[in-house]
Specification:
single chain, 243 residues, alpha/beta, D-Maltodextrin-Binding Protein, domain 2, two-stranded antiparallel ribbon, globular
Amino acid sequence: MIIKQMRYLVLGILCFVFSTAGKASAEDILLVTHEFRPYSWVDKVGIYKGASVEIADLLFKKAEISKKWRIMPLKRAYGYVKKTPNTCLFPLQRNQEREADFQWVSPIMINRFAFYSSVANDISIRTLEDLNNFKVASYLGSGLKEYLDGFGIKTIEAIKDEVAANMVSLGRADVWATDVFSEPYTSELINKKFNKKFVFFTSIGAMACHQSLSKETINRLQTELSALYRNLEIAKIVRRYER
């Protein structure tokens, strides 16, 4: 009788272990992104596109980790991933202020930021000190405002990069601070031309993941990312989007 009860007990434990393991492995990581061409956007039929999207698709495939996508504004995405288990935000600039909020897989890309002025209202700036008398427009969540605030430079944040660019073209701001990689796409989107002044900041574009993700998952993604760099796979993707 005791042996029979023990068999049922062992069988029950095994069923529980296998069922929970199956659920854990079947649960996709929710990869949250934001619209920022050419890094990430969703086309008219709902397909996710962009350099960051292609990198993430390849990275998760190589790591044999399932995922699904969701898009939302950057500031909202930051708060959502910070409090929601089994999620990652991608791409996001990695800096000291954000470091403790997430687990990181990086570098996804190296980002360079520059100042641009309107062709119709060109201004002369060569150093950060030259900006003290001008208003700078950047996009919300980029982290540029925090950086420029440290130099006493007045910075206005717009909800999207194209809105920041339009502010400069309409004379509501003097200088547009944006990513060198994305500037041609944004300029084309709003059909405006800008003059590049100088690169003022370089940062690491990364994937920020909720603290609940296992170290094994983070390490696997990091290992595969390093392999993609060694094999020049990321360089190939980036080149397709360069203008």
